[in-house]
Amino acid sequence: MGVNPQSLRGSNTGVYVGATHTNAGEGYPDYPQSDVDGSIDIALFQILHSSQHLFANRISFANDFKGPSLMVDTACSSSLSAMTLAYNDLMLGNTDAAIVCGTYMVFQPFLTEIQVEAGICSPRGVSAVLDESADGYVKSEAVCCLFLQRRQDARRVYSHVVSARVNVDGRKKAGMFYPSADTQEQLMRQSCKLAAIDPPSLTYFEAHATGTKVGDLQEIKAIYNSYCEGRTELLPVGALKSNMGHSEAASGVSSVVKVMIAYENECIPPNINFNKLKTELKRYFPPLLAVTEKYPYNPVQPLHKKRADA
Predict the structure, then answer these.
(1) Per the database entry, which stretches of residues form a coiled coil (predicted)?
(2) Residues 95 and 232 in one domain
(3) Which residue has the higher pLDDT, 301 or 173?
């Protein structure tokens, strides 16, 4: 980023961390014994310093940041929800810079066992995003972060955030955990409209795409409806989770990092474990294109109907 971290000490820099599960059951120790000297102090230290609310605060404390410091838990969208809050605070002038983090570590293997039994995770341990054989997602671990600042303050620019929004499906007849293509489409259209982006001009889409039986279908439908009306070119669709699995709370920021690496190298890496397109998705491909081999890509192309600087 070209910025000496020491120069940020005492600054109005915000820290926004997206995370879900914590280690060791929220940090609570096993059987603290009041008759063992120092055991209560140790237990208090473990509880306080392993709690989720300190994930962001510890970063702010160690670096003497004075901006907002908060932890965001919206399940798999946690880190991108954190990024949305960070972006909005920058746009409103509440902060001068922001550190957006996403983290997920698998400290409790029994969760994977339960999700395999429930049909959420792949019993084969294969992340076959968009493929006919997809039978659930594969858990992965990630710790990653982004540094956001206004363009005029930046020494290096890897990408430009032009819109960041969140929504939720609301009440659905199919159940709380069933994704809604209609709501996803609504959010995509709103984001493009506010950023003055012409949807058919989009040149690449990095999908959430986990490899679940229902989720991929709903998301691809939303992408097709949002960006393919009037489109004359193919729209490449990438899926980081095919390469590294689903890092849940960290998956959003992980995907942003992937896209920036693709920008820098002018090449989109292929989705792996893809052999046969899922039958229910065939009506959307083309104009959507599953990236199955190295895809040359030049990100410097016009997306906007009019210029909209962040």
Answers:
(1) none
(2) no
(3) 173
- What pLDDT does residue 43 have? 67
- 206 and 179 housed in the same domain: yes
Give the structural domain span for 276.
109-139+173-310
Same domain, 46 and 187: no
| 50-59 long-range Cβ contacts below 8 angstroms, 24+ apart | 50/22, 50/23, 50/24, 50/26, 51/22, 51/26, 51/27, 52/19, 52/22, 52/26, 55/17, 55/19, 55/101, 55/103, 56/15, 56/16, 56/17, 56/101, 57/15, 59/15, 59/17, 59/99, 59/101
Co-location of 185 and 51 in the same domain: no
State the Cα–Cα distance between residues 50 and 24, nearest whole angstrom: 8
Catalytic residues: 76, 208, 246
44 and 121 fall within a common domain: no
pLDDT in tens, 217-263: 899 999 999 999 888 889 999 999 988 989 989 999 999 999 999 98
Answer yes or no: is pLDDT of 26 > 90: no
257 and 234 in a single domain? The answer is yes
Single pTM value for the model: 0.84
Angle at 207 between CA 201 and CA 211, to 5 degrees: 150
Instruction: Determine the average pLDDT of the residues in 276-286.
Output: 90
